Amino acid sequence: MSTNLFEDFDLVSSKQWKQKIQYELKGADYNETLVWNSPEDIMVKPFYHKDENSTALNSGTKATEFKICQNIFVFDISKSIERAQDALNRGADSLRFTIENETIDITLLLEKIAFQRITVYFNLRFFSIDFVKKIEDFAKKSNVTIFCNLDPIGQLAKDGNWFSTPEKSNFNSLNTIASSTNSVSFISVNGALYQNAGATIVQQIAYSLGHVNEYFNRVESISTPIVFEIAVGTNYFFEIAKLRALRILFNLIAKEYNHTLPCNIIAFPTKRNKTLYDYNVNMLRTTTECMSAILGGADAIANLPYDALYHKDNEFGDRIARNQLLILKKESYFDKVNNPADGSYYIENLTQQLAEKALALFKDIEANGGFLKQLNEGTIKRKIQESADAAQELFDSGKEILLGTNKHPNKQDKMKHDLELFPFVKVKPRKTLITPIIEKRLAEKIEQERLELE
After folding, report:
1. Nearest one of 255, 227, 200, 213 to 370, comparing CA atoms
2. pLDDT score at 263
3. Total Cβ atoms within 10 A of residue 398
4. Of 1, 55, 107, 168, which sits most exposed with the smallest number of CB within 10 A?
5. Could you give the C-alpha distances from 125 to 152, 163, 397, in angstroms and in order?
6. 44 by DSSP, 3-state: which?
């Protein structure tokens, strides 16, 4: 527009807005009535104003041209190829293969799929230099973008044991891969574990940064992008700010190691707030979580099917989950704006506060021996458990609401005979080096009680 119509209006300061709000409150206290405190100890105000946000943050994100990613667990190669081709034909433009052992013929798996237009992530639950080399060889001759997500520290945190012992051999193997690999990204950080186990947003960012800092310190030359696997929760604006703050702080830390490549963020909806009963509500939850991931600048998003808690992978669940992302991309045009959150006073403020608090926690971790030391000592596990217990108490008291579970439950729902998967935490007694960090949903206790009464 050639004419700025807003020049006809007088500017209103934040002080004037606050005075108007206080007048409308008719004597009620402004702070007690309208300001609330988040679990991250951030005071959220009823409005944000330009004169309170002097510095605009550059989140470092590019256009929200996110990839729609399909998760595929590889057991039977022919079925995995068929499923991958079907997902690509129906709108996916990225694949994430989970592979449990190196007996899988990786060349056969890859060569059967048209890779010209997609990105591939490998979630490897084992550590094999030879297997990574096979992927590297394929990437070189095919000119494919492949992220081979290796995360020994994440393995220790989640499982309680390293891929192999002693600890040093894990980093020796990473250094061996680093010295010969330049076509495939090979380091990832499982930040989703911390969110699904109950960590606060500040903890999630700080622990993910401490986690990656161990790799910067122990792997001599990282010349490829690093992947962060991040779970996105239901606190819409906070989750947008979380991804932005993570990217800002990663760039700050990476610069100290002369690592100039941006991180790659693949996001998933959290499992923590998903429910067994009234399971269709999970579609609403995952939709807003995917929206947060897009606006926060995730590079790829792998949606969680609404029935993932109790059903094995199935065509209908996959299709609905994928279509949620396709609607956001093709019908709602979420991929058409560069950095859509930049300039939002509220999100800028949240991003800055989360970044400052996470950086302070990260510095404290480093001052006390580093992330790996605190992980081995059980400090990280204990801190996450404290946060998880606080959230569980809010849920049990009804202050934290999951619709259909602890608020307006449908008593007619019956689920006992529909369970194909065991939907609760199941920890087998075994010998581990450390106590693992366990993912747990908020609704598990209520759901177990309901199942027993069916």
Report:
1. 213
2. 95
3. 9
4. 1
5. 10, 8, 38
6. strand
d(CA 243, CA 245): 5
264-269 and 300-301 beta bridge pairing: parallel
pLDDT, position 81:
94
Radius of gyration of the chain (CA): 23
CB count, 10 Å around CB of 125? 11
Name the band, by pLDDT with cuts 50, 70 and 90, for residue 280: very high
Q: Are 70 and 84 in contact (CB under 8 A)?
A: yes
The angle that helices 77-89 and 315-326 make with each other, rounded to 10 degrees, is 30
246, 382 in Cβ contact below 8 A? Answer: no
Query: Is 119 in contact with 94 (CB distance < 8 Å)?
Result: yes
Query: pLDDT tens across 376-394, in order?
Result: 999 999 999 999 999 999 9
Give the whole-angstrom CA distance, residue 66 versus residue 266: 9
Mean pLDDT of 70-96: 94
- Residues contacting 150, CB < 8 A, separation 6+: 124, 127, 132, 174, 177, 186, 187, 188
With contact defined as beta carbons under 8 Å apart, do 342 and 68 qualify? no
Q: Tell me, what amino acid is at 258?
A: N
Asked whether 308 and 73 are in contact (CB, 8 A), the reply is no
Assigned token pair, 242: 């979380």
Contact present, 143 and 180 (Cβ < 8 Å)? no
Please, are residues 91 and 116 in contact by the beta-carbon 8 Å criterion?
Answer: no
Pair 279, 305: CB distance under 8 Å: no
Residue identified by tokens 């609404």 is: 306
Angle ∠(191,155,295) on CA atoms, nearest 5: 15
